[in-house]
Amino acid sequence: MSDVAFVIAGYGVILGGLAAYAALLLRRLARVREDRRSGDDRG
Amino acid sequence: MKTRILGIVALLAVVAATLFGLFVVPADLNQGDAQRIMYPHVASAWLAYLSFGVTALAGIGWLIRRDLRFDSVAVASAEIGVVFTAFAIWGGMMWARPVWGVFWQWEDPRLTTTALLLALYVGYLLLRRLSDDPARRATRASVVGLVAAVDMPIVHFSVIWWRGLHQAPTFLSPDKILNPSAPLPFVLALVGMLGAFTLAWAWLLIRRYQLARAELAREEAVRGGLIRKASRSASSSTASSSLPTGDVAGAGGGTQSKAPAEAAR
Fold it and tell me: How far, in Å, CA of B15 to CA of B18, rounded?
């Protein structure tokens, strides 16, 4: 493997992981808020 | 709205810092292109320290003030810290293979204590799942968060205290910050990535804190609903026990009132 391949693997996993974690976080937040809203509606 | 703006600014900063680190800064004379991995690696390591430091401080806050908002900050920061520690380890491995010739070496104190740091905070997050009682959970987590924080100075100073493959600290070394020996573009790339990742960290922390608060509110709502349901069942079973068929109805009501209480536990 060349140095460039390690650079791509390094940046790819870190930036991709950061993006994936941020997306997952927003999804979890939206789901919890939705649960609470539907819970409130049911009273 | 402010958080959304922070998110956009952080995203743009990370993109700019990445482009600068990959395409503007020249390759290092000795390490070649592999040196470019240092920028996100060092930034991730800094944010791991920052995250676990915040977790420890928020833990102290909870133990003193007994305010669950501190615990929400602690769990938010710990989870983000685990993510950045994993990034730091991954970046380090991708840099080490072309430069050191190995991905990992267990004899190296910096690598081993960093792996221990990751394991400690994964344990912290798992420990939180053991209790449904927010106060008990917060107390246990605060103590573990404080104990685990002891590993941070060990990680940082391990390269000074013991001999290993890892070089002496680049970060938090006042001499190197004030008198950088590296050419300006390298320093700018590092500082740029540190700033960009710190912005991203701040955005993640706010969102994860919001999630922790929302989860807590949902937990309380579920618990409150179960308690209401249990008390309704109890009162209806008391009322029906006065009827001639009360034995049968009372037995059913008794079971119903017990089940939510068990579920709540």
Answer: 5
